[in-house]
């Protein structure tokens, strides 16, 4: 029941529909690049939640003092890994909080947007379930989250 063939263009399309107003709000330059030549039969719910949480964060925590905002989502196969990279030029996360980023209920810009502080904790749980890894870099220039999931557990 958990595993079904995944069409990433469809998943991204659905995410864009649900996040329509978030994409509109800051006039963000939002681009997605999907290059997944093999059909992956896996857990659509978890993959959708991973991608949607990271994209919604990238959109929510934009920097209104910058001349323009962008969010870039790359989904591709790299060697034996399935890779998701979400990059933004938003407000970033202060270095002193980097060790708390995946903890539940932690929010570092509560004034900027609504949220419960659960998105990244859930993403991390899902990545662990799928035996993958998640890394990020974040500064006042923006943030990049990178997830790699071994194809062996996905296909
Ligand atoms: P929820 O996702 O539950 O709606 P949330 O977005 O506040 O709420 P998380 O997704 O777990 O919670 O993120 C935790 C905090 O990390 C955010 O409140 C925000 O301060 C910071 N954060 C996450 N992603 C980014 C990002 N791309 N740029 C800047 N800050 C971020
Ligand atoms: Mg979030």
Structure summary:
This protein is α+β, with helices and mostly antiparallel strands and 155 residues long. The protein is built from 5 helices and 7 strands; from the N terminus they run βααββαββαββα.
Please write out the topology.
Layout: E1 3-6, H1 8-18, H2 20-25, E2 29-35, E3 40-43, H3 44-60, E4 70-78, E5 81-88, H4 119-129, E6 133-139, E7 142-150, H5 151-154
Parallel strand pairs: 2-4
Antiparallel strand pairs: 1-3, 4-5, 5-7, 6-7
This protein binds adenosine-5'-triphosphate (ATP) and magnesium ion.
What do these coordinates show?
By secondary structure, the chain is of the alpha+beta class. The protein is built from five helices and seven strands. It has helices spanning 8-18, 20-25, 44-60, 119-129, 151-154, and strands at residues 3-6, 29-35, 40-43, 70-78, 81-88, 133-139, 142-150. The strands form two sheets. The protein has a five-stranded mixed sheet with strand order 2-4-5-7-6. Strands 1-3 form a two-stranded antiparallel sheet. Helix 3 (44-60) runs antiparallel to helix 4. It is globular. The two termini are 14 Å apart. The structure holds adenosine-5'-triphosphate and magnesium ion (MG). Magnesium ion (MG) binds next to helix 3.
């Amino acid at each position: 029941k958990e595993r079904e063939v995944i069409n990433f263009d469809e998943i991204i399309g659905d995410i864009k529909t649900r996040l329509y107003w978030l994409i509109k709000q800051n006039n963000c330059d939002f681009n997605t690049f999907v290059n997944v030549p093999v059909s992956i039969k896996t857990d659509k719910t978890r993959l959708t939640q991973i991608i949607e949480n990271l994209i919604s964060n990238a959109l929510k925590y934009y920097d209104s003092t910058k001349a323009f905002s962008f969010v870039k989502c790359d989904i591709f196969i790299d060697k034996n890994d399935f890779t998701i990279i979400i990059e933004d030029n938003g407000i970033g996360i202060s270095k002193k909080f980097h060790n708390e980023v995946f903890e539940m209920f932690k929010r570092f810009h509560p004034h900027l947007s609504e949220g419960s502080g659960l998105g990244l904790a859930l993403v991390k749980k899902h990545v662990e379930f799928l035996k993958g890894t998640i890394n990020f870099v974040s500064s006042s220039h923006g943030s990049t989250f990178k997830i790699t999931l071994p194809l062996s557990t996905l296909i």
